[in-house]
Design brief:
heterodimer, A: 341 residues, alpha+beta, B: 323 residues, five-stranded mixed beta sheet, 5 helices, 9 strands, globular, Exoribonuclease family protein (chain B), Exoribonuclease family protein (chain A)
C-alpha cells in the first residue's frame, strides 16, 4: 500500500491527524511497514512499552493510594479499609475452621486463603465514566467493557492470591480460658479488614487493564492498616491511631501484567496477507484497529496468568517471545512500584 | 450500605462493614482536642491553588484543580486532620445532538458531578446521590449564563466533574459537623472554577471567565462573646468551631455579574457583605486561573508555530498514500 513501485499516480496527501481519523488501519500499516524507520504512529517501536509513572500516598482519606500514568492513560486508585465483624459474616465459614487457622503459622494453608474470596474481603471497582474518554459518558450503567475489566481484575487478584488472609484477620486472645482456667486461652477470630479498591480513571488512552492493575499494586504496597484489636471493655474492635503500630500488607510476590495487541496488515489483492505485528502496551488508537489481544502476567520470570482472545496469529513461538517481553517489562514496573527510578 | 446491591459492580460483604474506630479518640477527650486544626491564615487570605489544564487528551477540554490542605499532616496520628480539595473536570463536545433529539437553537449543557468513593471521610457509593445531583444543578446554573450558546445550535456539551477529594462539612471530632453541608459550598466553588477553566481550554465561546469563591461568617474563636462574629474568605470548615453562615458565588469579575449564589445559615441583616466577601475570594482564584490559561495558550501557539514551520520538512518524511 505504501510507496507503490510502478509509476505512482499523483499521491493524495492528508495531514497526519486527518489521515489517522479517515483510514486508521492503512495509517498504522503504512507506519509499521515503512522500510527504514518502522515505528508505530505514536513514535514507539513495536516492542516498546510506555514508561510507568507512579505516585503514592496522595489521597487523605485512604489507607493507601496511588496515581499511575502510562503515557496519556492516568488513573487513581484508593484503598480503603473497613472492618467486617465476625458476627456479620455469613455462615459459610464455620467458626471452628477459622479458629484452627487463626494462628499466624497456618498462613500458607490453602484452606485459609479461601476466606479472602468467600468472605469478599477485597472489593475492587473501576469507574470509567469520569469524562476520561468520549466512549463512556456518565449517567449510564457501567458498560460491558467496564464490567469485564472489573471481573478480570478481581479474578487476577484472587488467582494470584496476592493478599494473605492473616494480614486481614483481626484476632483476639483472651487473658484466661473461660472454660478451663489451667489451659492456654484459645485465639479466636473477631473480624476482618475489608479492602475497598476503588480505581478512577482520569484519562484513558489504551491499555486500561495494565494501568488498573499497576495502580492497584502500587496502592496495596502503599497501604498501612492501623493496629486493630478486640476490646473487652466495649466489646468491639478498636484501632490504634499510632502510625508506628500500623502494618503494611505482605503481598505475595509482585505479579505484573503486560498487554499486547496484534495488528494484522491487509494484503494488496485477494488471498494475499500483509504482515503481522504484535504491539506492546497499545494505545487507544491501536486498540481500535486490533482485534487479537494477549495479556501475560508474570512474576519474576514465572507465568501467573495468560489471557488471549480475538484471533489466531499468536502461536507458540510468538507467545514465547511475548513472555520474554513481559519478563523484561516486569523489571521496569517493579522498579517503578518500589520507588526506584 | 449493605442493602445497596449493584449487580454490575463488585459489592462489599453482605454483612456490612464499619469504618474503624480509634481508641484514643473515645477514651481521651483531651487528646481529641489536640488534634483540632486551627486557621493559621489571615481572615482575607486564601489557600494556595494549583490548576492545570489539558490533562485529558481525548477530551476537548479538561482541567485539574487542587487546593492543598493548609494544616500540615501530623506524623503522630493516622487520622488526617483536614482534607484537601482535588477536582478534575472534562468537557466532551460540543457535538451534534442525536437525530431523535428535538431541535435546540442553542448549545445544550449537561453537567455531572460525582464524588469518588474515597473523596470523603465516609465512603461514598458509585450511584449518584441527591447531593451530587444538587451540585450538578448549581454548577449548571453557574455555567449556563457564561457560555454563548447561540453559536452552537443543535449541539450538546457534557461537563463531567469528578471530585477526588472534597472539603469536609466540619471537623470530624465535632458530632454536629457532619451533614451540615458547609463543605459543599467549597466544593461547589471549586467545581465552578475548574469547569470554567476546562471550558476555556475547550475553546467554547464565553462572555467572561466565571470563578467560584466562598466567604463565611464565623464565631470569633479568640473572644468570649457569643455575638462576636468575623467574616473570613475561603473558609476551611474543619478549622472553625462554629460557622454561622456561608455563601458561595459564581462571579464574572470583568463584568461584575454574579451567575450563581448559594447561601446557607443565619446571615443576619446584611447579606451583601457576605456576598461581597465571596466575590473577593473568587477574584483571588481568578488571578490564578488567568495566569494558567495564558500560559497554556502561549504554549499552544508556540507549538503551532513550530509545527507549521516543521510541516514543510516533514512532508518529505510523511508516508504517502496512493491509489
Amino acid at each position: 500500500m505504501a510507496t507503490a513501485a510502478s509509476a505512482p499516480p499523483p499521491a493524495l496527501t492528508f495531514p497526519r491527524p486527518i489521515f489517522a481519523a479517515v483510514s486508521p488501519h492503512p495509517f498504522l500499516q503504512a507506519h509499521l511497514s515503512a522500510s527504514k524507520t518502522a515505528v508505530r504512529a505514536n513514535g514507539r517501536a513495536a516492542h516498546e512499552f510506555r514508561a510507568p509513572g507512579v505516585n503514592t500516598g496522595s489521597l487523605t482519606h485512604c489507607n493507601g493510594s496511588a496515581v499511575v500514568r502510562l503515557g496519556n492513560t492516568s488513573v487513581v486508585c484508593g484503598v480503603r479499609a473497613e472492618i467486617l465483624k465476625e458476627e456479620d459474616t455469613p455462615g459459610t465459614s464455620s467458626p471452628a475452621a477459622v479458629n484452627a487457622n487463626g494462628d499466624v503459622e497456618g498462613d500458607e494453608d490453602a484452606g485459609a486463603e479461601d476466606e479472602v474470596e468467600t468472605l469478599r474481603l477485597l472489593v475492587p471497582n473501576v469507574e470509567l465514566s469520569t469524562g476520561s474518554t468520549p466512549a463512556h459518558i456518565p449517567g449510564n450503567a457501567p458498560s460491558t467493557f467496564a464490567q469485564s475489566l472489573i471481573t478480570r481484575i478481581r479474578s487476577l487478584l484472587h488467582s494470584t492470591r496476592l493478599l494473605r488472609a492473616r494480614d486481614l484477620r483481626i484476632t483476639y486472645t483472651p487473658t484466661t480460658n473461660p472454660e478451663d482456667p489451667e489451659a492456654a486461652p484459645e485465639t479466636e477470630s473477631k473480624g476482618y479488614w475489608v479492602l475497598y479498591l476503588d480505581v478512577f480513571f482520569i484519562s484513558i488512552d489504551g491499555n486500561a487493564f495494565d494501568a488498573t492493575w499497576l495502580s492497584i499494586l502500587a496502592a496495596l504496597k502503599n497501604t498501612r492498616l492501623p493496629h486493630a484489636y478486640f476490646d473487652e471493655e466495649c466489646e468491639g474492635i478498636l484501632c490504634s491511631d499510632d502510625p508506628s503500630e500500623a502494618r503494611t500488607l505482605q503481598l505475595r510476590g509482585l505479579p505484573v501484567s503486560s498487554s499486547f495487541a496484534v495488528f494484522e496488515g491487509r494484503g494488496e489483492g485477494d488471498g494475499e496477507t500483509g504482515g503481522e505485528w504484535v504491539l506492546s502496551d497499545p494505545d487507544a488508537f491501536e486498540e481500535g484497529v486490533c482485534r487479537e489481544t494477549v495479556t501475560v502476567t508474570v512474576d519474576r520470570g514465572v507465568i501467573r496468568r495468560v489471557e488471549k482472545s480475538g484471533g489466531g496469529v499468536v502461536g507458540r513461538e510468538t507467545m514465547k517471545a511475548l513472555v520474554k517481553r513481559a519478563t523484561e517489562r516486569w523489571a521496569v514496573v517493579e522498579g517503578a512500584v518500589s520507588g526506584r527510578p | 450500605m449493605a442493602t445497596n446491591t449493584d449487580r454490575r459492580r463488585n459489592n462489599p460483604p453482605s454483612g456490612g462493614t464499619h469504618a474503624p474506630v480509634f481508641a484514643r479518640t473515645l477514651r481521651e477527650p483531651e487528646y481529641l482536642q489536640t488534634l483540632r486544626p486551627t486557621r493559621t491564615r489571615g481572615p482575607n487570605e486564601l489557600r494556595r491553588i494549583f490548576l492545570q489544564t489539558s490533562i485529558i487528551p481525548s477530551a476537548s477540554g479538561s482541567a485539574y484543580l487542587e487546593i492543598p490542605s493548609s494544616s500540615a499532616n501530623s506524623s503522630s496520628t493516622l487520622i488526617p486532620p483536614t482534607s484537601s480539595l482535588k477536582i478534575t473536570a472534562s468537557i466532551q463536545g460540543p457535538k451534534p445532538l442525536p437525530r431523535s433529539a428535538p431541535f435546540s437553537p442553542s448549545l445544550l449543557l449537561t453537567t455531572t458531578v460525582k464524588f469518588a468513593p474515597f473523596a470523603t471521610r465516609h465512603r461514598r457509593g458509585y450511584i449518584r446521590d441527591n447531593t451530587e445531583r444538587d451540585l450538578g444543578v448549581h454548577l449548571e446554573t453557574a455555567l449556563r449564563a457564561v457560555i454563548i450558546g447561540e453559536r452552537w445550535p443543535k449541539s450538546g456539551v457534557e461537563v463531567v466533574v469528578t471530585i477526588l477529594e472534597g472539603d469536609e462539612d466540619g471537623w470530624w471530632g465535632d458530632a454536629h459537623a457532619s451533614g451540615s453541608g458547609w463543605g459543599l459550598l467549597n466544593v461547589l466553588a471549586g467545581c465552578i472554577t475548574v469547569a470554567s477553566a476546562a471550558i476555556t481550554d475547550a475553546g467554547i465561546d464565553c462572555v467572561d471567565m466565571v470563578c467560584g469563591g466562598v466567604a463565611a461568617i464565623i464565631r470569633n474563636p479568640d473572644s468570649r462573646d457569643e455575638e462576636d462574629l468575623v467574616r473570613v474568605l475561603d473558609p476551611c470548615p474543619a478549622e472553625h468551631k462554629q460557622v454561622v453562615a456561608a455563601c458561595a458565588v459564581g462571579y464574572l469579575a470583568s463584568r461584575d455579574e454574579v451567575t450563581e449564589i448559594w447561601m446557607k445559615g443565619d446571615v443576619g441583616p446584611d447579606p451583601d457583605a457576605l456576598i461581597e466577601g465571596a466575590t473577593h475570594a473568587s477574584v483571588g482564584s481568578l488571578a490564578v486561573v488567568k495566569e494558567v490559561l495564558l500560559e497554556a495558550l502561549q504554549a499552544k501557539f508556540q507549538g503551532q508555530i513550530e509545527s507549521s514551520q516543521g510541516a514543510q520538512k516533514r512532508k518529505a518524511q510523511d508516508v504517502e498514500m496512493t491509489g
